[in-house]
Every structure is written in structure tokens, then in C-alpha cells.
């Protein structure tokens, strides 16, 4: 099998059960999720190289599989419920991971700047690309019926990336850098 098919040479691509222009809101949504998956893979590779990040690489690998599920759910021309893969059970597991990672870190009072270790910075990139994927998916949901669990998953996933970035810094002994031009905005109960 050849890697190129030439079927997209006219600016269209295949959906499951149809075709769409490559700049279609649907293609933009699942394409942004694909971009997020690539950044998540880079973060996973970095986490796997550091023994202090025990468990984080495995979490990121599971997330990569679930991002494929998200992309799959959004790539149907006419989705049927029995075809969809993303469920709210995935969100419950993400919430458990968020609580676990956040519990390792000192409370925050101010916004923090993306950065710290290379891994934490990579996870912040994942967070911002995840937010863009969420916005693209919300735009798609305004245009056609989609699996609403995908929006909830992406919303929770961006929180996971934030918690993971803080945990990566904490485990490496790197303090988060607070945004100094703002006031305390968190109550310290996080």
C-alpha cells in the first residue's frame, strides 16, 4: 500500500461515509485533535525519559488512544450512536488523574506562566492546543450533530494538562513561575 493516494489533490478529504473540503469545520476540528495527539506524543516521550515522571508517560499514552477516539467520533459524515467511542467514563478517569497530580503540588494563588522544565512547557503547549481543539469542536457542534462527550472530554483534558505540567515541575524540583502583574486569584484550596 502506498502512503499517498492522490484523492486529496483537489482540496477534499475523506470522512467516514462522505467527503469534505480540507478547510471544512469538521476537518479542522479533528485535524486539531490530531495535532494535539502529536504534541502529546512528544510530551510522553519526554516523560518516559525521566524516572521522576513515573506513571505520567502511561497516562499520556492512554490519552493518545482516546484522542484517536475523539478524532474518530468527529470524522463521521453522519454519526450513529453505536459508532461513537468517547464516553463520560473517560472524564471520570481524567478527573481522578487531575486530583492525583494536583494533590502532589503546592496550592497556587496566582496565574502561572507556561514553562519550567522542558516537559512542563511541552504539557502547557498540549493544554493550549487542547483548548483550540475544544473551540473547533464547539464550532462543529453548532453546525452539525456530534458526540457531546467529545467537548466534555477536551474541556477536562486541558485541565489534566495543566495539572500534569505543575506535577512535572514539582517532581523535578522546579517552581512554577507566577504571573507577577496580577493579584491572588485562587483561594489556595486547589
UniProtKB/TrEMBL annotation:
Principal EC category: transferase
InterPro entries: CblAdoTrfase-like, CblAdoTrfase-like_sf, PduO-typ
TM annotation in the entry: none
One Pfam family matching this protein: Cob_adeno_trans
Keywords: ATP-binding, Cobalamin biosynthesis, Nucleotide-binding, Transferase
Domain of life of the source: Bacteria
Molecular function as annotated in GO: ATP binding; corrinoid adenosyltransferase activity
EC numbers: 2.5.1.17
Residues of the Cobalamin adenosyltransferase-like domain: 3-167
Pathway: Cofactor biosynthesis; adenosylcobalamin biosynthesis; adenosylcobalamin from cob(II)yrinate a,c-diamide: step 2/7
NCBIfam families referenced in this protein's UniProt entry, alphabetically: PduO_Nterm
Family of the protein in this entry: Belongs to the Cob(I)alamin adenosyltransferase family.
Assembly: Homotrimer.
Protein known as: Corrinoid adenosyltransferase
Biological classification of the source: Bacteria, Bacillati, Bacillota, Bacilli, Bacillales
Amino acid at each position: 500500500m502506498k502512503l499517498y493516494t492522490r484523492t486529496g489533490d483537489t482540496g477534499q478529504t475523506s470522512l467516514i461515509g462522505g467527503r469534505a473540503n480540507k478547510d471544512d469545520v469538521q476537518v479542522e476540528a479533528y485535524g486539531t485533535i490530531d495535532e494535539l495527539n502529536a504534541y502529546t506524543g512528544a510530551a510522553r516521550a519526554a516523560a518516559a525519559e525521566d524516572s521522576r515522571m513515573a506513571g505520567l508517560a502511561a497516562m499520556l499514552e492512554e490519552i493518545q488512544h482516546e484522542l484517536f477516539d475523539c478524532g474518530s467520533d468527529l470524522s463521521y459524515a453522519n454519526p450513529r450512536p453505536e459508532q461513537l467511542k468517547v464516553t463520560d467514563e473517560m472524564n471520570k478517569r481524567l478527573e481522578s488523574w487531575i486530583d492525583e497530580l494536583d494533590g502532589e503540588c503546592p496550592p497556587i494563588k496566582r496565574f502561572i506562566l507556561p514553562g519550567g522544565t522542558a516537559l512542563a512547557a511541552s504539557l502547557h503547549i498540549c493544554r493550549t492546543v487542547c483548548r483550540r481543539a475544544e473551540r473547533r469542536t464547539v464550532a462543529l457542534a453548532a453546525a452539525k450533530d456530534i458526540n457531546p462527550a467529545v467537548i466534555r472530554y477536551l474541556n477536562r483534558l486541558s485541565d489534566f494538562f495543566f495539572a500534569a505540567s505543575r506535577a512535572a515541575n514539582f517532581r523535578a524540583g522546579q517552581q512554577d513561575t507566577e504571573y507577577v502583574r496580577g493579584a491572588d486569584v485562587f483561594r489556595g484550596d486547589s
